[in-house]
Design brief:
The protein is built from 11 helices and 14 strands. By secondary structure, it is an alpha/beta fold. It binds zinc ion.
């Protein structure tokens, strides 16, 4: 919140893009209008009109905002923004603090939730597949351009794990690539067939993955009923971490923005064990 942090460092000042142009491009590229979401997608807090340095991160926590301000950014681009449905809307406590940080530094806050989970290239599901070495199935009749999906808004992706034979192999792969031991439910010797995945807190969609023929379902979080569902259906479950499975989409999106507009984009990972 210091005056110093609000003044862009002249060395850092690269080419800029008008905020409205960036927001319009993102809305189109991520097909924002197609999603019924639990939060507003797009510009959530208005800051400077000229954007020169974007910090990307998973969640617009106070820690990320502080890191962005310290880095001299004028814009924060995240997967988890603010103003979620059914949240207490009062500007008190942690919300007051976060909002205060953004407003005092004249930061733009841009957030894309479901549109960023689902995007066929930059999305969290697409990027998790890349990181874990999963091979998405192609949707029939789309010329291989779109993945085969299930569930609402096509949020569950279906595919295979080339070179991996058992649930135990997959669990090892997840641990080594995401640098975090996953929660695994099921026999480690379970033979892998079709694999389904959806990043974040998508444990509530496991039945749809089972119905789509998955032998294993990978998501970020688990709930108490998840274990029973896995045991009773015989579908293996891998809880790989909410944050850990959603680190890659916003980063890929940031790279795309940097390439498109030539602005400086910095990904900052604020560690989260959940
Ligand atoms: Zn999430």
């Amino acid at each position: 919140m210091t005056k110093l942090a609000r003044t862009p460092d002249p060395i850092d000042a690269g080419p800029g893009v008008a905020r409205d142009a960036l927001v319009a491009w993102l809305a189109e590229a991520l097909r924002v209008a197609r999603f019924k979401d639990y939060c507003p997608n797009g510009l959530q807090v208005e800051g400077r009109q000229e954007i020169r340095h974007i910090v990307t991160g998973v969640t617009a926590s106070a820690a990320l905002l502080e890191a962005a301000i310290k880095a001299g950014a004028d814009t924060v681009l995240v997967h988890h923004g603010w103003f979620w449905r059914n949240e207490d809307p009062r500007v008190i406590g942690t919300r007051r603090r976060r909002l205060g940080l953004a407003l005092a530094a004249d930061l733009n806050l841009l957030a894309y939730h479901l549109p960023l989970d689902a995007h066929p290239v930059w999305g969290n599901n697409a990027q998790l597949a890349r990181v874990l070495g999963l091979l998405p199935d192609a949707a029939p009749g789309e010329g291989g351009a779109l993945p085969r999906t299930a569930g609402v808004d096509g949020l569950i992706w279906l595919g295979s794990a080339p070179g991996l034979v058992t649930l135990g192999d997959l669990a090892e792969r997840v641990e080594s690539r995401l640098d975090r031991p996953p929660l695994v439910i099921g026999d480690p010797g379970l033979r892998l067939g079709s694999i389904a995945w959806c990043t974040g807190a998508a444990q509530g969609m496991m039945q749809e993955a089972v119905d789509a023929g998955a032998t294993v379902y990978i998501t970020g979080e688990a709930s108490e009923p998840t274990a029973h569902l896995a045991r009773e259906t015989g579908c293996g479950f891998v809880g790989a971490g909410h944050h850990a499975t959603e680190r890659y989409g916003v980063r890929a999106l940031g790279d795309a923005v940097a390439e498109q507009f030539g602005v400086r984009v910095t990904f900052i990972d604020i560690d989260n064990p959940v």
